[in-house]
Write a structure and sequence with these properties.
- By secondary structure, the protein is an alpha/beta fold.
- It is built from nine helices and 37 strands.
- The chain has a 23-stranded parallel beta sheet that branches. A seven-stranded mixed beta sheet has the order 5-4-1-6-10-7-11.
- Strand 8 and strand 9 form a beta hairpin.
- The N and C termini lie far apart (about 95 Å).
Length: about 450
């Protein structure tokens, strides 16, 4: 059995935020979610996240992704691991990872697990130019680890050591829980430190190793919003590089934001100043123009999206959108559509080869195939209490500046004259005209303008 304990109980005071530290986002996803994903990629079967401050927020966001253990109050890293009692009887290996290391990769976790097959405890370390106030790794002559010395307790000679503790470990699970009971809190902070297990394991004749991380950025902890930005930049660079090597064209990758769960087909082109996040997919041959935001959007083949926002919606193939369109609320747009500027769709199913060119709101509706929606059309779907549905069938033509008062159905190959307010169903092939007849009052125009302009 491969298990993991993720330490996520702290508030993160240096973030200066009411949000639990591990819930701050890197590339569009909470830090703790990245770590859970990488543990799963490393074939970890049970993941226990130790929560404390704001635990309700973390538990709601990560529900179904892992198990939880509550650390209240927080009395150190060793005390945090003690709370994961549901793993106490498990055989096998257990990773222990700080919840503020979002960039850790599955390959590194796999390396730790492999090293631990021939040891009882493995510490992931890093060699840095400036070790600052990190705990120092003190090794024995045979290369195994002797102890971890906290900066405040280190001698001048120990402070000169450049190998530091990253706060990421792997243990023989049974021995971990056996010797957690040996950790004492006889220190100024009255806390239980997991680093004490190095000396405890050595004292009991167990093998303790330290393996050096290949990339320091990957194992860096996040303690404030500046370090959060560094983690985001590092991860974003890796994501963009991966997709460029798989055939996605980034016009300017430095200002193209792609989330970790976003995927692409081939021959996709991404222009600058776009954000793709959530479970977004961009299909073969599609182009995303500048100033787009796509979140949980599925885009088909050979589409062009220009300066628009698409959320929780799907577009099929050969569709043009924008500029300044907003498609949201689980809308579905079938192939060969044109969704123009200043158009909003909400919970709208738009049929094959239809047109909605500009300045229109279509909400809670079913639009058929080969339908033309004129400029300024509104489906009036809300009566102040309930949302109602509008249906426009195949081949219909809806003239400009028309209001369709839901619930209402416009039949096949029917015509709604511009400026109409439609309150009753329109039968197939009928024309609906619902507006007052025009009356021209001779001379009234000049008289009115003279009045408002103060002319005599």
């Amino acid at each position: 059995m491969k298990s993991a304990i993720l330490m996520a109980a702290g508030k993160g005071t240096r973030m200066h935020s009411d949000l639990p530290k591990v819930m701050h986002q890197v590339c569009g996803k909470p830090m703790i979610a990245h770590i859970i994903d990488q543990c799963k990629k490393a074939s970890v079967e049970r993941i226990v996240t130790v929560v404390g401050y704001g635990h309700e927020i973390i538990e709601e966001a990560m529900q179904g992704q892992c198990e939880f253990a509550l650390q209240m109050p927080q009395m150190g890293t060793g005390h945090a691991v003690m709370q994961a009692r549901q793993l106490e009887e498990e055989d096998g290996l257990t990773l222990v990872v700080n919840g503020d290391c979002p960039c850790i990769q599955s390959e590194t976790l796999e390396q730790l697990l492999k090293e631990c097959e021939s040891a009882d405890m493995v510490v992931l370390s890093a060699v840095v130019e400036d070790a600052r106030s990190y705990g120092r790794i003190v090794r024995k002559e045979d290369g195994t680890i002797d102890r971890i010395v906290e900066f405040k307790d280190a001698t001048d000679e120990e402070k000169a050591i450049r190998e530091i503790n990253t706060g990421i470990y792997c243990f023989n699970n049974k021995k971990l829980f056996k010797h957690l009971k040996d950790i004492e809190n006889n220190n100024a902070q009255k806390e239980y430190y997991i680093t004490d297990l190095v000396e405890i394991f050595n004292r009991n004749g167990l093998t303790v190793k330290a393996t050096i991380a290949k990339n320091n950025d990957e194992v860096a902890g996040v303690n404030d919003c500046y370090e959060l930005s560094l983690a985001d930049k590092w991860m974003r660079s890796r994501i963009n590089e991966k997709w460029m090597r798989e055939g996605v064209t980034f016009v300017n990758p430095d200002v193209t934001y792609v989330g970790s769960d976003v995927t692409f087909g081939h021959d996709v082109t991404l222009y600058p100043n776009i954000t793709l996040t959530g479970k977004t997919y961009i299909g073969d041959g599609s182009t995303i123009m500048p100033n787009c935001w796509l979140e949980n959007a599925v885009i088909g083949k050979n589409c062009t999206i220009d300066a628009s926002r698409i959320i929780d919606s799907e577009l099929k193939d050969e569709i043009t959108v924008g500029p300044f369109a907003h498609i949201r609320g689980h809308s579905l747009v079938e192939s060969k559509n044109r969704v123009g500027n200043f158009v909003e769709f909400k919970n709208n199913h738009m049929g094959y080869d239809s047109r909605c060119a500009h300045l229109t709101y279509l909400g809670d509706c079913e639009i058929g195939s080969h339908v033309n929606i004129g400029c300024g059309v509104v489906t009036v779907n809300y009566d102040g209490k309930n949302k109602w549905h509008t249906t426009v069938k195949d081949g219909a033509f809806i003239g400009s500046n028309s209001n369709l008062i839901a619930p209402v159905t416009v039949g096949e190959n029917s015509f709604v004259a511009c400026g109409s307010t439609i309150t009753d169903n329109v039968d197939d092939e009928d024309m609906a005209i619902a507006r007052a007849r025009q009356i021209n009052k001779e001379g009234y125009g000049k008289a009115y303008l003279d009045k408002v302009r103060g002319n005599k």
